[in-house]
């Protein structure tokens, strides 16, 4: 596949407006939590006072609206804007909870090939003029939908679960992106108990293979399912380990020097010893 | 080493299996080659080097290492003997024949200093002598 070109500021001379950052959230494999991660990081960034636009690039399989709880408010979508049926302002949906957050939904009844890559690139640039962050929720796969989602981005967040298939696909996607997108890793759905028992790849295992800057680790929490059911992303909460993890990742994206959030997965020597003696300790 | 550990510990955690499988699959993914092609490449590599120096085929090790975004092939090819400069070359690229194999063998015994390599030893020499005699046999 040909090299993908990230969108960089091309006219530094004529740039009075400070452009926001366009970050594509991608993974290759489906079902690893790209949309959930996009929604939560969007809220976590908006909570910091940043102006955030979330763009659903999964044309034909739109979901970001329902995860955000905005499905009833969507009137127009990204293709309406690209095809100049409506203005960007008409299509942007304000969030229910955060005044800093807006959604540009995907078209549900159209196909990924309907998107004009150059127009998509121009649209993202337009959004960057108005928002501090433009998070693009990339569809699964590495075909046209991926290329369109990546077209206007200049950075990438790759979401990976601790599974062989997800790691392999992320490896492929990172190879396609190249270093220009400065891909950073979010490890999603980690189950520390399984890691402890040697039944799940650890954060170290995954990143020994991927070798990417780690933004943070999100545990496999039932609460994430519950909040998705309700359309109220977990990152809206002030309390809780997982909400805190999203907040920390947002802080790291913003350039704050905070440690990458992780979940307890380290096994001490005495744990191993205990396990070896079948739980009976002298 | 890994095999030895497996034997010692009985079964290994499935996460280790996952790790090992991933490592191997990504190696081949990155090379975009099938495993048998790697074996062929190893054989051809040793064949080419064997035209110039005598190598211990049994101990040839080829490995792939990934550093950052790059993949490196590491080959360890123990040399048993180096022919005297200007001396009779071993068999060029022609099929090895018993006659062509004779000079290097004679050379090695005549001047042991030339054949001084870390792996040069009696067992290795015996192995080496066995080999040339085996090759023409299969060629016939």
Structural description of this entry:
- With 282 residues, chain A is of the alpha/beta class.
- Chain A has a single domain, classed as Rossmann fold (3-Layer(aba) Sandwich).
- Chain A is built from 12 helices and 8 strands.
- Chain A has an 8-stranded mixed sheet with strand order 3-4-2-5-1-6-7-8, sandwiched between helices.
- In chain A, α7 links the parallel β6 (155-160) and β7 (184-190).
- Chain A starts with 20 loop residues before the first strand and ends in a 6-residue tail after the last helix.
- The mean pLDDT of chain A is 91.
- With 140 residues, chain B is an alpha+beta fold.
- Chain B has 2 domains: 1-32, no CATH class; 33-139, no CATH class.
- Chain B has helices spanning 2-9, 14-31, 35-50, 98-110, 122-139, and strands at residues 53-55, 61-67, 70-76, 79-82.
- In chain B, strands 1-4 form a two-stranded antiparallel sheet. In chain B, strands 2-3 form a two-stranded antiparallel ribbon.
- In chain B, β2 (61-67) and β3 (70-76) form a beta hairpin.
- At the A-B interface, α7 and α9 of A face α2 of B.
Most extensive chain contact?
A-B, 19 and 17 residues
- In DSSP terms (H or I, runs of 4 or more residues), the helix count of chain B works out at 5
Total DSSP E strands of chain A:
8
Shape, per Cα inertia axes of chain B: elongated
CATH architectural group of chain A: 3-Layer(aba) Sandwich
Beta-strand content of chain B? 15-25%
Strands in their spatial order, largest beta sheet of chain A: 3-4-2-5-1-6-7-8
Distance between the termini of chain B: 39 Å
Report the average pLDDT across residues of chain B.
63
- Oligomer kind: heterodimer
Shape of chain A: globular
Helix content bin of chain A: 25-40%
Give the strand tally of chain B: 4
Supply the CATH superfamily name of chain A.
Answer: P-loop containing nucleotide triphosphate hydrolases
Major sheet of chain B: 2 strands, antiparallel
Number of domains of chain B: 2
Helix/strand order of chain A: EHEHHHEEHEHEHEHHEHHH
- The CATH topology of chain A, please? Rossmann fold
Low-confidence stretches of chain B: 90-140
């Amino acid at each position: 596949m040909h090299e993908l070109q990230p969108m960089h500021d091309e006219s530094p001379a004529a740039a009075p407006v400070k452009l926001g950052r366009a970050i594509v959230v991608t993974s290759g494999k489906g079902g690893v939590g790209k949309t959930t991660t996009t929604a939560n990081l969007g809220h976590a960034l908006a909570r910091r006072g940043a102006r955030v636009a979330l763009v659903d690039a999964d044309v034909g399989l739109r979901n970001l609206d329902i995860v955000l709880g905005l499905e009833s408010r969507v009137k127009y979508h990204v293709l309406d804007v690209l095809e100049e049926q409506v203005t960007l302002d008409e299509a942007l949906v304000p969030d229910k909870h955060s005044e800093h957050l807006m959604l540009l939904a995907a078209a549900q009844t159209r196909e990924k090939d309907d998107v004009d890559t150059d127009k998509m690139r121009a649209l993202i640039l337009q959004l960057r003029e108005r928002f501090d962050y433009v998070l693009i929720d990339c569809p699964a796969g590495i075909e046209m939908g991926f290329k369109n989602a990546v077209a206007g981005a200049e950075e990438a967040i790759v979401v990976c679960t601790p599974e062989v298939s997800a790691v392999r696909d992320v490896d492929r996607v990172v190879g396609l992106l190249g270093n220009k997108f400065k891909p950073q890793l979010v490890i999603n759905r980690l189950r520390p108990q399984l890691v402890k028992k040697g039944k799940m790849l650890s954060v170290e295992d995954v990143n020994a293979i991927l070798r990417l800057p780690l933004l943070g680790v999100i545990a496999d929490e039932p609460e994430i399912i519950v909040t998705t059911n309700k359309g109220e992303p977990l990152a809206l909460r002030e309390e809780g380990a997982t909400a805190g993890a999203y907040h920390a990742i947002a802080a790291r994206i913003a350039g704050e020097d905070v440690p990458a959030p992780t979940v307890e997965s380290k096994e001490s020597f005495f744990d191993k010893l205990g396990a070896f003696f079948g739980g009976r300790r002298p | 080493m890994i095999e030895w550990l497996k034997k010692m510990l009985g079964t290994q955690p499935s996460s280790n299996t996952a790790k090992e499988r991933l490592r191997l699959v990504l190696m081949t993914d990155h090379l975009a080659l099938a495993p048998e092609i790697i074996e062929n490449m190893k054989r051809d590599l040793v064949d080419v080097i064997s035209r110039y120096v005598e190598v211990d085929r049994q101990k040839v090790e080829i490995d792939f290492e990934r550093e950052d975004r790059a993949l490196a092939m590491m080959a360890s090819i123990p040399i048993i003997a180096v022919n005297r400069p200007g001396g009779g070359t071993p068999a060029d690229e022609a099929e090895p024949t018993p006659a062509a194999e004779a000079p290097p063998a004679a050379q090695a015994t005549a001047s042991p200093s030339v054949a001084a390599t870390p792996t040069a030893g009696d067992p290795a020499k015996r192995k080496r002598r066995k080999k040339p005699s085996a090759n023409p046999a299969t060629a016939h």
